[in-house]
Each structure stands twice: as structure tokens, then as C-alpha cells.
Amino acid sequence: MSTAASLLSQVDAGVARITLNRPQQRNALDIPTLRGLIELLDAHEADPGVRVVVLSGTGRSFSAGADLAEWAEAEARGQLETYGWTEMAHRLMGRLHGLSKPTLAAVNGTAVGAGMDLALCCDFRIAAQSARFKAGYTAMAYSPDAGASWHLPRLIGVEQAKRLLFLDEPWSAERALAAGLVGEVCADAELPQAVDRFAARLAVGPTFAFAQTKALIREGATRSLAEQLAAEQAAGLLCGRSEDAAEALRAVAEKRAPHFSGR
């Protein structure tokens, strides 16, 4: 396990676990934390031993979003608009959303503002029963600035997105599940086990095919059906040349479960 001031990182059995580690600040995202997350994602993307990435937080919060104490210091210096938080946050959200490997947010508590957006950038979200989701922007007289206005309409529909953003009410884990904001809710004590089971399934899967599938879904929204079919054909050809595809065919012939290498 590697440890930084604000982050913990551990890789085990193909699963990279990144933990926000600022419990006294409710895992708020200051610039060093944002930068550290980008560096870890870059490292895990490049490491063939990593096949899935899990994000979680220590303490009672997943993340409270932007570090408002850091914002206040920048405001006092007259640098709120120029000190770089938004640019760094946008780099992080884009990096996480574009990661080729599956990503999973283990939402252990409150997820507010950019903390909620961090979870939205992941492919999957599992929430503890006590988790709460709150946009946090309009209460501060701000509009969304870390991807919520892009993710929410796609995940939960336009009207539900507006309800969450305009009214700025905290959503329970169950309401988030009913709306489609998360895919699973479990008892608080069972969250680590539920996340481990899900991550383990992803970690033994066909990693290259997962990457192609993520790219097709991510980029398909801007294509016509004909363009998407062409992209699917191209991705399928690449998958067919992978070691995992050859292993899948061998497994069928030998009447056994495949053992994917992720290549």
C-alpha cells in the first residue's frame, strides 16, 4: 500500500483501490488531492496488473466536493478564478471518465458536489445504505462545474437531473437507486464485501473487450447508427485478435470456464 497525505492506494489481485484519506475535511478535494488522483489513474492505466479501479473514502463521507477552505484562501488572495481548481478538477473528471479499465465508486457516505461528480464519472456505483447524494451547486449560487450537467441527464433523465440540481435536496441511497443514479445499495457493514465481489468479477474479465465496450458507449452518443455499427465492427476485429478471444474459443471447445489474461 502506498500512502500520500490525502490518498491511499493499494493493488491486489488486479484490483486497484484508491481511498480518499482526508476524513477531517470529509474527503474534500483540494488541488494536491486532485493532482494525486490524476497521477494514480495514469499509473494504474499503464499497469497491466491493474484490471479494475475502485474509489472510496475514509470516515463518514465519500467526498464533500471542492475544498471550500482552499477556495476561501484563494478568494482572500484575489485568485479564486485563476488558482486552478476548476481546471485540475476537469482534468481529473475527464481522466477518470476516459479510463480504459472498469471503474467502481464505493459510496460509503455523503457525496456532494464534485464528490458526487467523481462517483458519476465511474462506470459503476455501489452505495451504502447511509450514503447521501447532493449536488451542492445552486445552494452556493453556482451552476454545475465538474460534469454533473453532462452525466445526470444521461443517467437519470432531464427532469430528475433538474430536480437534483435545482432543488439541491439530499437524495438517500434508496432514492438514488430508484432513479438510476446508483446500481446497487447494501447495508453499511456489507459495503466492503459487496464492492470486493463486484470488483473481483470485473478483474477476471476480458479487460481488452471491456476497454473497447467503454469506448463504444462513451463515443456512441455522437454517432449515427451507421457510424456506430462501423465502430462496433472495428472494435470487434480488434477484440477477435486478442489473447482473451482465443482463450474464450478454447474454453468453449474444451467445455470449461475461460481464464482471461486481460490481453
UniProtKB/TrEMBL annotation:
InterPro entries: ClpP/crotonase-like_dom_sf (IPR029045), Enoyl-CoA_hyd/isom_CS (IPR018376), Enoyl-CoA_hydra/iso (IPR001753), Enoyl-CoA_hydra_C (IPR014748). PROSITE patterns: ENOYL_COA_HYDRATASE (PS00166). Signal peptide: none annotated. One of its GO terms (molecular function) is catalytic activity. PANTHER family: EG:BACN32G11.4 PROTEIN (PTHR43459:SF1), ENOYL-COA HYDRATASE (PTHR43459). Belongs to the enoyl-CoA hydratase/isomerase family. This is Enoyl-CoA hydratase.
